[in-house]
Amino acid sequence: MGGVLIGFGIIGFVILVGWLLARFRIVDQEGRLVLNRTSFFAASPALLFTVLSEADVGLLFSSVLAVALVAFIAVALIYAVVARIWFTRDPSRIALAATATGYSNINNIGLPVAIYVIGDASFVGPMLLLQLLLLAPALLATLDILSAGRASVGRILTQPLRNPMLIASALGALVSALEIELPDPVLAPLEILGGAAVPLMLLAFGISLRGERPLQPGSGRKEVVLAVLLKSLIMPVVAFALARFAFGLDEQLVYACTVMAALPSAQNMYQYALRYDRATLITRDIVLLTTFGSLPVMLLIAWLLGPA
Hints:
308 residues
């Protein structure tokens, strides 16, 4: 448990530094975008490739993916049904918020959590592949159809190919599956570059928290509360039950599946909402509030299930 608290302390400290940089106007939101892009296009792909190229990905793909997918479907369906009955009939609004209810922030928070809390960054790869290869294209196709009456097939099919983190994860998994031994001159520069990934992510995330004001009047508060409860509380419970009882995984995998399910909603959801000009306030508040709510939930999970 002490190691878990240290891990959260490390994450929290770097996020706080990012927030202070924004608070004292040392780095503005444009600077945050530079940090994000540097991590997204260079450091994070290097880190994911080196980690997955040396990981036993076969075990993860057979179990973690199944738990994550079923847990996502469960909470997204609950949200969609409840929202459709009591809150709104707008299908785009429901699609975005339902996806945000189960779509986790793997890029900015998941990787640091996997490294410092679970102790194994290889859990990030399968979830990243699931979200970017299946869940994101499904949402984009739905929004394309609802907004334009038809889907851009080429855009949907090529969308995963434009994500460097996904490409690096797939290549790393391939190297591992084929048992290819990479020479040190190849791995060394990638390891150096990958070492910058987590600090850049957390600093950028801390900067992004400056000035956000959630749950403003007319922002769909009840819908946001429903999504936050499902993402922060129900999804980890569902993932735990699936991992422990349905799939019979060992304690470490049960712990990892439960922690990863408690991650906050991904910022991608807000970007998609802006792109289609649908449910922007709702998705923004879901991302923000699940980010704050995920910390105590993950601490509780670590206390109950984590290593001593």
